Amino acid sequence: xxxxxxxxxxxLIHLRDKRTFIFMIAFPLVLILILGTALTNxxxxxxxxxxxxxxxxxxxxxxxxxxSWGQFVQASQQxxxxxxxxxxxxxxxxxxxDDQYTAYAELxxxxxxxxxxxxxxxxxxxIQGMLTVYADKFNLAAAAFKADPSPSSxxxxxxxxxxxxxxxxxxxLNKDKQPGSIDYYAISMTTMIAFYACLPASxxxxxxxxxxxxIRLGASPVSKIEIFTGKVLATTIVNFLCIAIVVxxxxxxxxxEWGSHYIxxxxxxxxxxxxxxxFGLACSYLFNGGAARAFIFIVIQVISFVGGAYFPIDITxxxxxxxxxxxxxxxxxxxxxxxxxSDQASAAIPVIVLxxxxxxxxxxxxxxxxxxxxGL
Amino acid sequence: MNVLEIQGLTKKFGDFxxxxxxxxxxxxxxxxxxxxxxxxxxxxxxxxISSLLRITKGEIRLLGKDIAKHxxxxxxxxxxxxxxxxxxxxMTAYENVHFFAGLYGLRGAELKERTFEALEFVGLAxxxxxxxxxxxxxxxxxxxxxxxxxxxxKLIIMDEPTVGIDPQSRNYxxxxxxxxxxxxxxxxxxxxxxxxxxxxxxxxxxVDHGKIIAEGTKEQLKSxxxxxxxxxxGYKSDQPxxxxxxxxIQGVERVMAQxxxxxxxxxxxxxxxxxxxxQLIQDEVEIRSLDEQAPNLETVFLTLTGRNLRD
Lengths: 376, 311
Description:
Number of domains of chain B: 2
Largest sheet of chain B: 6 strands, mixed
Radius of gyration of chain B: 23 Å
Strand content of chain A: 5-15%
Number of helices of chain A: 16
CATH superfamily of the largest domain in chain B: P-loop containing nucleotide triphosphate hydrolases
Shape of chain B: globular
Helix content of chain A: 55-70%
CATH class of the largest domain in chain B: Alpha Beta
Largest sheet of chain A: 4 strands, mixed
Oligomer: heterodimer
Number of domains of chain A: 2
């Protein structure tokens, strides 16, 4: 029961501290909004393709080639490319230079001469790619006809050479779900702020000493372990509550994607808060006074950076990669991304195990130091 | 009956001996003055009685039970009023008392009742819902006391409960101490104000270098130093008085100048008053008043420890 008394008191003090809410709720939400809005383009995988207009001069004499070109034009127009036949006296190159067309092509029985506009690189490359495919297909059909001019073979070759379309086929992993910038920062800021719980945790016992209430607590019939447990419990509840508000608000107000595996997500975040609180407490016993706070602050900045809190880190080798693997934020971010975007609720398990294991180790260290120490 | 018995109590911090084989008995119903200059071992002793520090050697018995073996029993029966305010500024007066009393196993209606009783006792019942940040220094001190008495301890340890407050609040607290005592509480009282100790304490112990060097009623303590006298001379002088020639006068042991008042501690059998006055006239010091007193507790303390209580 004394644990609950201590926890209740801690909750009361935390909930009356406006700074807790400003820092633990407003701060991450503002960061999600600012970073998510400012870095929208960095997370977008879509490319805008403009109009594709091809001006061509038709000098084809070969009937088969003319027929094949006609089919190609028809198929390509369905893909959104506009073909314009140049007038006899029209200077095709100049029209491209003047940006009237994306590209200019001169067709003859000997082949295709192609002039693309460097101003529209993407559109130019697409048209060039399609013409190359067309030329390759026609050459293949012509070579096959030379080798086997039988009627059945001719029929097959004609069908093959005349079937245009599907010039570019896009295949991607997870093509349906990819985090946008708001989604990314909703996860990374939430896990980062969850770890910030170590800062108030580092002051849990120190505050009692500063206020001199440690004397009263120490003189009361409450064991150190009860005081310790009550404080850890209350700090975890308050910080998890703040994190839950950040998640809810980011989902409702910013439309951030949090998937549908709520329990897995909650467990990952809860165990991360427990880890942060345990880390903060351990630091308060291992370092004296302000040194604990300074050390924690440095650790938070490093693990936030390498954990991808401010921007995604894609380094796959070297020292930074090694360090990043040790960041609890990285585990949490990767775990949450898998849960949300790959629909894998089980991705929470390794993160939870790591968080709980480390928390237990840190709490044991704190407990041993606490027992050794005289007074609170 | 002894509420508290200390036998051979020793506390070491590394090589430093803070409390040295101390023996002490506090009887039921006493207001026991525990005096010592800073660093004398007073707080260390109090912290061991309150189970805040481990005992290196010796034994403390509370109501006949060894506190090392019956720690919970001891804690349940002790109330501590620390020298520094030990309250939560973020909680109301009621919440502070309620929380600390709750740690002693009180629950529900009884807890509520005891909380109100304690607040009423220190005169804060009407301001129970206010936060301590709105309180004066004296009111905070009273709240500090309320947090220690709500669970009705048998022994209350008050470590300088009146430090830094106005005379009105001090009187209120001193009256509260007396009232608590009348209600059956035994009190250990420490203070740097000798007049407080003289006023309220029934027995006094003087601690120096971790040892009890004198113990008894104030009359018993004063009677230990019949061979000295205190001379107080009020004066008016723009220049600081030269104390050196006065110190050289036969029988004079100590001289202090404070607020236009000379405090001279001298051997009782030597008649040196004339010599002192002549020296002051020679130094052109205008004498305003003169008073020769028998030793008080301050003198006793000074004689026994060689230090002032506020040192």
